[in-house]
Structure formats: structure tokens, C-alpha cells
Amino acid sequence: MQEYKLFIGGEWTDSATDKTFYDINPATLDTLASLQVAGKDDVDRAVEAAWEAFKTWSETPPPKRAMVLFRAARILEERKEELAVLMTQEMGKVLPETRGDVQEAIDITLYAAGEGRRMLGETTTSELKDKFCMTVLQPIGVIGVITPWNFPMAIPAWKLMPALVAGNSIVMKPASDTPLLTIKLVEVLMEAGLSPGVINLVFGPGETVGKAVVHQPEIRAISFTGSLETGKWIMGECAKAMKRVSLELGGKNPIIIMGDADIDLAVDGVLWGAFGTTGQRCTAASRVIVHEEVKDEFTKRLLGRTQVLRIGNGLDPKTDVGPVINESQLSKIEKYIHIGQNEGANLLTGGKITNPGLPGFFFEPTIFTDVGPDMRIAQEEIFGPVVSLIPVSGLDEAIEVANNTSYGLSSSIYTRDISSAFRAIKKIEAGITYINSSTIGAEVHLSFGGVKGTGNGFREAGTDAIKEFTEVKAVYFDYSGKLQKAQID
């Protein structure tokens, strides 16, 4: 078993705390690695190293910074399968999904590298003679990055690659449940030629290490993906120091199924949305808002497909649904089953912790029917393989129910009526809307993020990715040879 130290200034270095924790396979409970826990002094050292590296990295032309990312993408492509296997061991989801996770990291790395030649500002006219106006993008400085466990390579890559090509340096705390894939990603970047100190890794719990990163006074911005509660706390703490903060938080994502929907296609989308990644996605389809005209037929077909899903180790090609990430999450899901039953929802299938011949953290794919839109299971993020079916009588009611949560990340509607589709696009309160597809499946060249409790206005990926990690500076060239006063002159 390998022990990982902290990665600071391009070197693996001992923590000041003398504490360690273990990285566990959630399917087999085998120990994959031990990692040292960082302390406040270690975070301070990492920030110092990041600022030292920033001096050179920020002065490197963006196309040259991009070359590091292009080389990293090629290395990731070469190692895709071994990284996918390791991710299944560390996080639990099935191999086809972990291959997709690595591919998403490759895609965003290539996309961000391309932005190295597209660090676009604006030019515009001046209201005065002999004066030229433009904007330029500049790096922020040292960025604190805190990432979750469910996409242990894709989400770190979403944040790291745009931040790096924009010229920033990084102090990063990956999730304690899945640090190995972040370590491998950083090792690839170093192999590709990234300068020492540009990325620094500190490990440990959010309650201590995460807080130290947020509170470190020399970190100028925080990029965080995780829970709404933690996001609110980070936003409040960063406001005290006027730090830039970008948040990607939870979701309670609806799929609307209209009476004219292709039912088999809708069942495919709900199965993937609800039970893909064992429901452990911020974009998971946790609410299915189904027209009463097709409710019975849809429920029958969904039940039949759900009950034959195979639970097990994600490395087994026969497995459809892997484990949840840890015991705490397993207990949380079980708690919500009891909540749903006590609220009067009908537990159609699943609802139990299960043992598929392995000692890990497995939960049955679960369907609740006859769910009221105000029930807790229809309002609160469960983050497990649990879906609630909510009957409605028409499109207006469906959209009202879809919007009846504090979140607004992803959404979907299944319909053959183009008018219904466009009304849904206009009226659903979400950052993403799919037509005749599931709530899952973002592409890296489109912006990703949500409204209301899902985020604070920033978007990741797409053309907005660079904006998250840059400051805009307005520049004026006055070549008139005299003092000109805008508005006054």
C-alpha cells in the first residue's frame, strides 16, 4: 500500500500534522492507499509555493501554457483504461462510466488548451477623438480549488485546465474519498511540463483542511463543487475577505414526461438519469414528473427495467449499478427511504441496503410513486439511486412542479410537440434543459451550471470557463497629445 505525502512546490513533502487517512474501495472495502493530512501551516506553505510559481507561469504566453495541456491530453489518452480501472476501484461506478469520466477530462483539457489562442478581450470605439478602447483578460493569482468525489477526474479537470491556461496557480484539496485520480491528473500535468509549484495538493477533511484553504488570506479565489450547505458557508466566508468565489452545488433535477412522449425512450432516460453513477450526480434525475395519461404505462415499464438491474463491483462487466461511496452516504439514503414512507409515498421497489456477495456499500435502485411535490423526498437532494414519480395533469402543472425546489441545475422534457419543448425551455428554471434526453450528459464546449441554490452565477466549461478564472481589465490608449476628459469633453 502506497502512502502519499502532500505535493507542494513540485515535491512530495511530509505534513506537519503526523496524521493519515485511508482511501477505501467502496465495493470491496480494500485499502487502496494512505494519505497524509495537511494542517494550516501546510496550506500556508502550499500558497507560498503557488505565489512563487505564479511569477513565472503568469508571464508565460498563453499558447505556451496551452502546450502543457495538449501534452497532458495525449498522456491521458494513452492511460485512459488504467485510469478508468483505478477510478472504479476508488469511486465505485462501473467501467463504462469511469472511461467516460476520464474522457471528459481529456475533452476539457483539449478544449482549454485551445483557449490558449483565444484569450479574447473586446475592442470598441471611444467617445473622444484619437482614443482607443479595449479589454484584456488577466489571471487572478492563486486559486483555491475544492472538488467532490463523484467525478474524481472530470471535475478537477474542469477547474484546473481553464485556470491553468489563464495563468493562475493552484492550491487544491481533492475529496478524501477519491484523492488518487486527482493525484494521477496532477502527475500527468507535471510529466507534460507544468512548472513546479503551479499546482499544489493538500489532503484531509473539509472541516479542517477545506476551511484552511477558504480562510487562507493570500488565496484570491475559491472554486468549489459540493453541497448547498457548504457552498453557502464558503460564500459567506469569502465575502468577508472580498474573495472571488464560484460555486457548483446540488440539484433536484426533473424529467417531465408528457402524454405524447416516446415512452421507451423516456424509460431509457430515467434509468440512466436516476441510477447511472448510482444516483450520485448533481445532475441525477431524482424527480420524474409524468403526465397522468401515461403514468401507469410508464411506471410499469420503468419498474420492469429497474428490477433487472444488476448490482455489484463496477469492474464486473455484468454490473449495471455499483456501490455508493461510503457508509455515511449509505445511511443517508436509508434515512430518506423512511422519510418517504412516513410522508405517504408508495415504495414501489428497492429501498434497502443490499449485499451482492461483497462487503461494500450497496443500495437497491429505488422507485417511489404517488409522490407529492412538497414531500422532502421531492425537495431534498438524496444523492443515491432513488427516484420519485410525481403525477401531473398538463404541461403548465409539470413546469410548476419542476420549478418547485430550491435548486435549478439540469432538467428534461420528453415530448413530440415542439411547442411544448420550447415552452419548457423558456419556463423551466434551470441552467440546462434537455429535450428527449436525460438530465445527464454535459458536453465540455457548452457552459455548465445552474440557478437558484445550484450556484452563484458562474458557469464551468464552454466559453464561460475562462471567465471563472480571469479578471477583466479595461485599457484606454489616448494618442491625442492633450488631456481629454470623458463625459466632460
Describe this entry's structure for a reader.
With 489 residues, this protein is α/β, with parallel strands linked by helices. The chain is 37% helix and 21% strand. The chain is built from 15 helices and 22 strands. The model has no long low-confidence stretch (mean pLDDT 97).
Helix content: 25-40%
- Trace the largest sheet across and list its strands: 15-18-19-14-13-20-21
CATH architecture of the largest domain: 3-Layer(aba) Sandwich
Gap between N and C termini? 72 Å
CATH superfamily of the largest domain: Aldehyde Dehydrogenase, Chain A, domain 1
Q: Residue ranges: pLDDT <50 for 5 or more in a row?
A: none
Note the overall shape: globular
Gyration radius, in Å = 24 Å
- Beta strand %: 15-25%
Number of domains: 2
Overall mean pLDDT stands at 97
Keywords:
489 residues, alpha/beta, Aldehyde Dehydrogenase, Chain A, domain 1, Aldehyde Dehydrogenase, Chain A, domain 2, 2 domains, seven-stranded mixed sheet, five-stranded parallel sheet, 37% helix, 21% strand
Topology:
Elements: E1 2-4, E2 6-8, E3 11-13, E4 20-24, E5 31-36, H1 40-57, H2 62-78, H3 80-91, H4 95-114, E6 123-124, E7 131-139, E8 142-146, H5 154-165, E9 169-173, H6 179-191, E10 199-201, H7 206-215, E11 221-225, H8 228-240, E12 244-248, E13 253-257, H9 263-275, E14 285-291, H10 295-306, H11 327-343, E15 346-349, E16 353-354, E17 362-363, E18 366-369, H12 376-379, E19 386-392, H13 395-402, E20 410-414, H14 418-427, E21 432-435, H15 465-468, E22 470-478
Parallel strand pairs: 1-5, 8-9, 8-11, 9-10, 11-12, 13-14, 13-20, 14-19, 18-19, 20-21
Antiparallel strand pairs: 2-3, 4-5, 6-7, 7-22, 15-18, 16-17
Helix pairs in contact: 2-4, 2-6, 3-4, 4-5, 9-10
